């Protein structure tokens, strides 16, 4: 019930109605039977053996093929829930076409995760000296959030959120992964910290330890 299979019909079928379609199918089946029998006779006379690649009917009309010879297809009709955070870690670089109008307004963001599309980001979001010294930021990790992707554009549109630091270092890489997956890694609030024991160092009391199962 989740997949809608769209039947494919020629315009001639729609014009001549169901009767014409049945006649066409009948003729095609007869041709298929004749072709198969003639090929079988020819193979018996010449002694040519059929290989695995020759198995299966040779039909131009896919409606005559058995199910095992068909590749089922479908199309996305609606997005129920957006699971991705729309945030990605990657690098920024200048556009290749320096004479284009887009070069004066945008830079290219290339995500580390190749499943995420490349993104146009405004130059206003980039560091002030990025245009004059782009090589200084070639190994600098940034967080970009996708905000739009127009149908007629090959690349998405987004905004740079922050600079993480040099690629390859543990802190920037870890922060980038947590941000991509939408994990809140901010500091605990005072209300949360007040729930913790205040008398430090804290140890489990003997009575509590006796009630617990020791899995150390």
From TrEMBL:
Biased composition (Basic and acidic residues): 51-61
Localization terms from the record: Cytoplasm
Gene Ontology molecular function: any one: 3'-5'-RNA exonuclease activity
Coiled coil stretches, renumbered: none
Chain segments carrying region Disordered: 38-61
InterPro entries the record matches: Dis3_CSD2, NA-bd_OB-fold, RNR_Ribonuclease
Keyword list, A-Z: Cytoplasm, Exonuclease, Hydrolase, Magnesium, Metal-binding, Nuclease, RNA-binding
Pfam families xref list: OB_Dis3
PANTHER family per record: DIS3-LIKE EXONUCLEASE 2 (PTHR23355:SF9), RIBONUCLEASE (PTHR23355)
Record-level GO cellular component terms: P-body
Boundaries of every CSD2 domain copy: 107-182
Name of the protein in question: DI3L2 exonuclease
Record gene name: Dis3l2_0
TM segment ranges: none
Domain of life, per lineage: Eukaryota
Organism whose genome encodes this protein: Polioptila caerulea (Blue-grey gnatcatcher)
Any one Gene Ontology BP term: miRNA catabolic process
